[in-house]
UniProtKB/TrEMBL annotation:
Catalytic activity: 2 GTP = 3',3'-c-di-GMP + 2 diphosphate
SUPFAM superfamilies named among the record's database cross-references: Nucleotide cyclase
Organism domain of life: Bacteria
UniProt source species: Dyella lipolytica
Keywords, ordered alphabetically: Membrane, Transmembrane, Transmembrane helix
Residues spanning the membrane: 28-45, 57-75, 87-108, 120-139, 154-174, 186-207, 253-272, 278-297
PROSITE patterns documented for this protein: GGDEF (PS50887)
Pfam families associated with the record: GGDEF
GGDEF domain: residues covered: 350-485
UniProt KW Nucleotidyltransferase keyword: no
SMART domains reported in the protein's UniProt record: GGDEF (SM00267)
Protein name: diguanylate cyclase
InterPro entries, A to Z: Diguanylate_Cyclase, GGDEF_dom, Nucleotide_cyclase, Rev_trsase/Diguanyl_cyclase
């Protein structure tokens, strides 16, 4: 409220002093303009200090733009007070007017995305500097160089200035429409209000100035600065909170924004061909190169991120299908692979076999030697079982001390052979078991083989092999049993395989 009152008083004082002196560019009216610009600078800087870190940079850029306006105005005031014999002050004014564009271009063109490569931010800064340098060169050459004598030069300068001012304003409005977070919306609301009103005022002021400045014209320049001071210091309007662009719109606008930088360089390059054709051509090439580099860096970052994403998805997939203790497959993998094996067996007639393997007296092993020794034993058994398989077969940790082996294209006979090899390899491990009647770790195995009648549901074959395993446990452990339906396929009269006397009963 107090800021509003102060601004009204300053605007009135400006008008009264300008009317009293009868000239827009007298010291007192200029001092009033500086006071309004200073208020805007203070308001924007205050907003910068109050903002969270992520949004601070854009507010600081806006404050820098206003600072350039203040310095530009101060130089004009000094010229009025002291004169400008060497033309240094007017050169300095041109420097500040060109530098004003630098933070403006940077703040409307940057995407400010957190994952953007640093080199892209540096490229944008370099390009904004190119814009400022080109502008300085263009203004100096057109207004005080040999081309100044040409009466059309002033119009070229005016159109160029209009194009830049309105491009900045339009880009800021687009960014406002694309901002998804409220704080960013508020920033672009303040920036676009200022840039748009400033562009309109500059267009009118410059046209009026061509025919000699009337006393009131200086007050026009107060308007965008007073407006910015009010917007920055007051609470944001409610509709800013309610307005939500879609993600697609927001991303498209943010990706499109940097094009304004290249556009400005091309625009300036085109105008500079009036001064030097080769500089204009070079500027156009620089603009294309800059945009190409920008796209290349961003694309390479996206490819890196995609590769990292694919890799972690693959790792996750592997982890989901793996048993963390033994490193072999787990039940998730078993379910899919067994289904595939059953389908393959049904389709080709080359049936698969299932081995349900259980470590004997494992509870006692754990109880006597501890859980850590139990884990080590499980790892050794898993690795020994894996060593006996072909690449197409699968070994799975099914439960605590239970393993399942899927043998592709394996009859009951082949499965018994494989089971014997497995019982043998565990025997060769010679892991001492203080509470087992066999004094070492042994395993019992139940076998079930797919037949043409076996349903596709993996549970059926698993249950059959589990029943066979139960038989093996009941018949004294450290032995192999074949499920009833599968045993009929065996050539000899199968009655279980006992490791102790190495005979088939
Ligand atoms: N160390 C360790 N032990 C486990 C793990 N998972 C299950 N166990 C243990 O394995 C034991 C299984 O015991 P039971 O199901 O009674 O089987 P068993 O003692 O081998 O008896 P039989 O199978 O009849 O010979 C339990 O004591 C579980 O605590 C594991 O990941 N690590």
């Amino acid at each position: 409220m107090r800021v509003g009152l102060l601004l009204v008083l300053l605007l009135l004082a400006h008008l009264v002093l300008a009317n009293w002196s009868g000239h827009a560019e007298d010291a007192w009216p200029q001092l009033m303009l500086l006071a309004v610009q200073g208020t805007a600078l203070w308001a924007v800087f205050t907003r910068y200090r109050r903002s969270p870190p992520l949004i601070r940079l854009p507010w600081l850029l806006l404050a820098s733009a206003i600072l350039m306006q203040v310095l530009w105005g101060s130089t004009n005031l000094l010229t009025t007070l002291m004169g400008d014999k060497g033309g240094y002050l007017s050169a300095l004014a041109t420097v500040f007017s060109s530098l004003y564009v630098l933070p403006c271009v940077f703040m409307v063109s940057r995407s400010f995305a957190r994952d953007e490569p640093r080199v892209v931010a540096r490229l944008d800064l370099a390009m904004s500097c190119v814009v400022a340098i080109l502008l300085y060169e263009f203004f100096t050459q057109m207004l005080s160089g040999p081309l100044a004598k040409d009466p059309t030069s002033i119009y070229v300068v005016l159109y160029q200035a209009d194009a830049i001012d309105f491009s900045l304003a339009l880009m800021a409005i687009l960014r406002l429409l694309g901002a998804r977070s409220f704080r960013w919306r508020f920033f672009y609301y303040a920036a676009s209000s200022y840039l748009l009103v400033n562009a309109i005022v500059a267009t009118i002021y410059n046209r009026v100035e061509l025919h000699g400045l009337p006393w009131w014209a200086g007050s026009l320049v107060d308007i965008p600065h007073a407006l910015l001071a009010l917007v920055a210091i007051r609470q944001p309007p409610r509709w800013l909170r309610a307005f939500h662009p879609s993600l697609a719109v927001s991303q498209t606008i943010a990706s499109f924004a940097p094009i304004i930088l290249s556009m400005m360089v091309v625009m300036l390059g085109f105008s500079i061909t009036r001064i030097s054709f080769s500089i204009g051509l070079l500027t156009g090439c620089v603009s294309v190169l800059f945009y190409g580099l920008r796209v290349a860096f961003i694309q390479s970052r996206h490819m890196d991120m995609k590769r990292a994403g694919d890799l972690s998805a693959l790792r996750l997939e592997q982890q989901v299908g793996r048993d963390p203790l033994t490193g072999i497959a787990n039940r998730v993998t078993l379910d899919t692979r067994l289904r595939e094996a059953l389908q393959e067996g049904r389709r080709t007639g080359h049936h698969c076999s299932l081995l349900m393997i259980d470590i004997d007296f494992f509870k006692q092993y754990n109880d006597s030697l501890g859980h850590i020794a139990g884990d080590a034993c499980l790892i050794k058994v898993a690795s020994a079982l894996s060593s006996q398989l072909r690449a197409c077969d699968l070994v799975v940790r099914y439960g605590g001390e239970e393993f399942v082996v899927v043998l592709m294209d394996a009859s009951a006979e082949t499965a018994v052979e494989a089971a014997r090899r497995m019982v043998g390899v565990i025997e060769r491990l010679q892991i001492p078991h203080p509470c087992s009647p066999y004094e070492r770790i042994t395993v019992s195995i139940g076998i079930a083989t797919q037949t043409s009648d076996t349903p596709m549901d993996p549970v059926v074959l698993l249950e059959e092999s589990d029943r066979a395993l139960y038989m093996a446990k009941n018949n004294g452990r450290d032995r192999v049993e074949v499920a009833e339906g599968s045993a009929q396929d065996l050539s000899s009269g199968w009655n279980g395989f006992d490791m102790r006397d190495n005979t088939i009963r």
